[in-house]
Amino acid sequence: MSGSLVHNLVRRLAYAFISIVGVAALVFVLLRMVPGNPVATLLGEHADNETVERISSSLGLDQPLPVQFANYVLGALHGDFGESYTLGKPVSELIGPAFLNTLWLAIAAALVAWVVGIACGLLAAIRKGTVVDRLFMGFSLLGVSLPVFMVAMLLQYLFARYLHWLPVAGITDWTGYILPAIALGWGSAGSIARLVRSSVIEVLQQDYIDTARAKGRTNTQVLVLHALRNAMLPVITLMAMQFSGLLSGAVITETIFSINGIGRLSVQAIAGRDIPLLQGTTLLCTFVIVMGNLVADLLYNVCDPRVRKGA
Amino acid sequence: MDPSQNANVTSVVEGELSLASATTSFEEPASVLRRLATDHKVAIVSTVVIVLFVLGAVFAPVLTPYQYDAINLSNRLAPPSLEHLFGTDEGGRDVLTRMLYGSRVSLVIGIVPTLLSVVLGTLIGMVAGYYGGKVDTAIMRVADIVMSFPTMLLAMVVMYTLGGGTTNVFLTMVLVGWSGVARVVRAETLKLKESEYVEAARIIGVRRARIILRHILPNCLPTIIVLFTLDIPSSILTESSLSFLGMGVQPPSASWGLMVSTGREFLYYAPWLCFAPCLAIMAIVLAFNYLGDGLRDVLDPHLQSQ
Amino acid sequence: MRRRTFVKAMLAAPLCGLLAQGCSSLTDRAKRGRLTTAASSDMTTMDMAHNESVYWAQLNIFDRLFETRMVDDKATVINSLCANYSRSDDGLTYDFALREGVRFSNGDPLTSSDVRYSFSRLLTEAAVNTDIPLQIRGGKALMEKQAAELEGFRITDDTHFSIVLNAPNGGFIAQLSSAAMSIVNERVTREATNFGMDPAETIGSGPYYVAEWVPNDHFTLRYNEHYWGDEPTVKESVQRIIPDASTRDLMFRNGEIDLIDLSNIDTLIVQRSYKTEHADQIVYNQQVGMTYLALNETNEFLKDVRVRKAICMAIDVDDIVNNLMSGDAIRQNGIIPTGIWGHNENLGAAPFDPDGARALLAEAGYHDGDVSFELALSGDGPKLLYEAISNQLSKIGVDAHIRVYDKAAWLDKRRSGQIEAFLATWFMDYNDPANIMDVFFGGSKQVKNRSICYPDTDVMARISDAKSILDDEERREEYRRLERKLVVEDRAWIPLYEQARLFCRGERVERFTPFWAGYGDFYVKDVVLRKEAQT
Question: Which of A60, C277, C355, C525 has its CA 20 to 30 A from that of A263?
Answer without folding.
Answer: A60
